[in-house]
Structures are given as structure tokens and as C-alpha cells.
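Prompt: Have a read of the protein record below and flag anything odd:
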Amino acid sequence: MIKWFRSGSPWVWLSAAAVSISILLVVTLLGLITARGLVFFWPKDVLQAEYQDLAGNNYRLIGEIQDTEEVPAARLRESGIELPGNEYSYTRYLIKTGNRDALGMDFRLVLPDFLTNIEHPPELMVVERREWGNLYGYLKEVKENGQVVAEGEAAVTELRKRLKRALELHGRIKHIEKDLIGAINYKLEQLRLEERRLELDNNDDPAKRAAITAQRAELQIEYEALQRQRNELFPQFNRDSFSAEIMDGRIIEVPLSKVVRFYFPNAMGVGGKISHYFSKLWEFVSDEPREANTEGGIFPAIFGTVMMVLLMSVLVTPAGVVAAVYLREYAKQGFVVRLIRIAVNNLAGVPSIVYGVFGLGFFVYFLGGNIDALFYPEAQPTPTFGTPGILWSSITLALLTLPVVIVATEEGLARVPRSIREGSLALGATKAETLWRTVLPMASPAMMTGLILAVARAAGEVAPLMLVGVVKLAPSLPLDGNAPYLHLDRKFMHLGFHIYDVGFQSPNVEAARPLVYATALLLVVVIIVLNLAAISIRNRLREKYRSLES
């Protein structure tokens, strides 16, 4: 046994076991996130049953089973519930009943033992709305300007046709408001700032002021024309509605302008459910959020995350490479360089929130405030760069990941054989030419390794971003069609912060819980895609320069 321990085999097996357990835990975690996240988009069957409450009253219950849990019987009896039998625990359903505007709450906790006459009528309808969450009930009538145009079986076909028309009108109105009128408002604001700049410079040039006035008049004419066009669409958009019977027997009327989609899950076949599943999945990755981020999509958060990581990569790579080249190739090795390396290694262990506080104080308030004072005085007191934005977020994360890139690049430079350097110098190349044409290309796979590690860490950071640029909802993307197109001063949405906001700040926790898993899965996928892209580039570089290393 002593000989076996001295051979080192136990430590090999111990290391293998630790790696295996780590892989198993990671796979289990990813499996849980995937299962909970992807099932969120599958259309669940809607049940109808009679339910008896604690007061002995019977009422109809309509909804979909969102989750199940095991509850100790003692806890239920302490709350005053008389339970049948002597079971140790009972299953409890979390049922999403929707109709929050009429019933006051989205979810109810019920015990299956108190449910009777459970059925799944095929005519039960689920309506996804822009406000107040889902509606569950029976379709009664379709109306146009308050007049009934279809009822009974014909109402479904009529509702589908009129909803398609309403969605087209919604898209046109949104395009006019957000894209066309938004672009005009942006140009009007630029003209205001230009006029203010002339005032600060005491420039009374009548030609420039006349040009600004003429441009403002043209934009105002375009603005009024778009407003008239939008106002003409509103009566058509608000024309249609439908009435439905909800679980308490009331008939409520819903305008189609508030409806996203409707479907009959109990009547769907497998093909219909698969089609609905991918429709919801596409909406999730391509649309904007609604209902306090608990419904709709998360495209702005995906865009903001990817753009921030790309900006961070552009900033951290040259800075890290230059620092590593100086420390390895040019600096005289001694106490000062050793001290710098110790400082770099220690920086890698500083908590990320400290970087956030530093970024807020130095980049936002000091650097951004001075930029505003020097280059944007016409916008004062409204800050331009003196407020959190995607530029300061990218720089802060570049600073946070800089030690990783420096260390990885230094390791790559150290692995380049000395004979390569000497051969280049012997052929007449200068030290700078040797470094640029020979050493750096051979060390590029190590640089990419550092960038991969930087991307993996930066994409998942949340704490510093909360201080230097990320917000709950960003009405405008940092990249749009308005000059200068890339707006580095704007705030943005981020997948990591979106998970935190939906999971811990949502006013409707039960509705938001499945969305947390789906967003977490998407964040993992985004990080994997970014890493795979960097790994692919690194592997190509490694193959390209492998012959030189040999």
C-alpha cells in the first residue's frame, strides 16, 4: 500500500474522480437549465374542474398546471385544511389561471384531492395579451365597432383573420412611431444642439441659423405627415374586439389591439404544438420584452451582450498584447518587473464589483464628465458621456479581463523557441521586425486563449455592469440607422442582468420563473458560440504556425 501511494497512482485516480464529478455536475446543471428552459415554450393543456375551497364553496377552475410540489401534511393541517387520509405528504398544483385584470391574480395553489370533474374541453382558448397576461376562457363573439360579426364556430375563423389584420396594423404603427418618427426626433434634437452650440460660441451667422430653421421646418412637416398617417391607422387598429367567458362565468371584452396570439391547446395535435413551440421560441430570441420583462422576447439583451463583448474584445486584446510584449521582450527583468507581474496576478482576483465602482468613479464621472465639458457643452446639464453607457461598460470589463490576456500572451511569447528569434536576427531583421513578423504570429494562439478566457468571464459578469451601463429596459439599441450609427453613450440590456431582474425584481415571480431558466440557457449558448468562434480562429492559427515551431 505504501509503495502504491509513493507511485502517485492514488493522486492520479483522485484527480480523475474530481474531474469526473465536476463534469457530471456541469452536465447536470446544464440539463436542468435546458429542461426547465425549453419546456417553457411548449403549449400545455388547459384543464377545467370543480374546486372546493376551505369555506366549502365550489367554483369552476380553468387554467394550466405550471408546476407541482410535495407538501408535508402537517403543514397543510396547520393552515386549517382538512385532508382526506393519513398521507405523510400531498401533491400540490400551481395552476396558472390568468385573467389577472378580472380575477386579481395569475396563479392559484390547489390540492388535486379537492378537484372534481376534471376535463380538457377542446374549445378552451388561451389568449396571449400585451397587458395583463394570458386570458383563459371560451370564445363567444367577434365584434367590429361594438357590433357582433361572428359567433359560435364561425367566430374562430373570423377572429384569426381579424387578428392577422390587427398584427399587421400594429407593425405599421410601430414602424412609424419607433423608426420614422424616432429618426425625425433624433434629427430635431441634433438641430437643437447645433443651435445651442452657436449660442455658446456667440456665432450669429444668419446663414447658419437660417439653414437650421429651414431644416427644422422640413422635419416638422415630415413629422406632422407621419402623425396624421399614424392617427389614421388607430381607428382601424382599435376597430375589432372579441368577448370570452372566463372561469367565474363573466363575459369580458378584449380589443384585438391588445392581443398577440390565441390558440386552443387541448385541440392541438403534435404537429400544431411543434409549430407553436418554434413560433414562441423565435419570438423569444427576436422580439422585445413586454409585461415587465416577463413576456415577449429578449432580443435587446442578446444584442447588448454580444455587442459589449465585441467592444471589450477590441479594447482588451491590443492593450493586453502590448503590455505582455513590453514585459517579456523589452523590459529589463528585475524587481520592478516582478512587482508588476505580482500586481497583474493580484488584479485577476479583485472582486468584479470593485471594478464597477472604479469604472463609475473614474470612467463615468471623471473621464465622461470632462468629455462632456470639453466636447458637448451644448447638451449640458444633460450628460452625454458623463452617464453610464455601453462604452464605459466595455472599458470596465476590458480592465477586469486585462490580467488574463497579459498572462496568456506572456506564456505564448515564452514558448516561442529562441532559435526562431536568433535565425530572424541573423538574416538581417531588426528586433521589431522579428517581433512583428515572426514571434507575434507564433504566439497568436496563446493570445486567442487569453481572449477566450476573457470573453467567457466578461459575458457572464453582472455586478460591475449594474453601475456602469446596463438597465432593465433600453428603448433604443446602441446600433441603429441614425448617424453616427454606433452610439457608445447609450445604456443597454444584458442577459445576465436580465436574469437577475426577472428572477428577483419581477412583480410576478411565478410567471417569471420559467423565463429565468430560458434566459440562463440562452446566455450559456451565447457564451459557447462566442468561445467556439474564438477557438476556431485559434486552431487555424495554431495549424498555420505549427510547421514553424517544428
User: Anything to note?
Assistant: The longest helix spans residues 154-200. DSSP finds 16 helices and 13 strands in the chain. The radius of gyration is 31 Å. The CA atoms of residues 31 and 500 lie 20 Å apart.
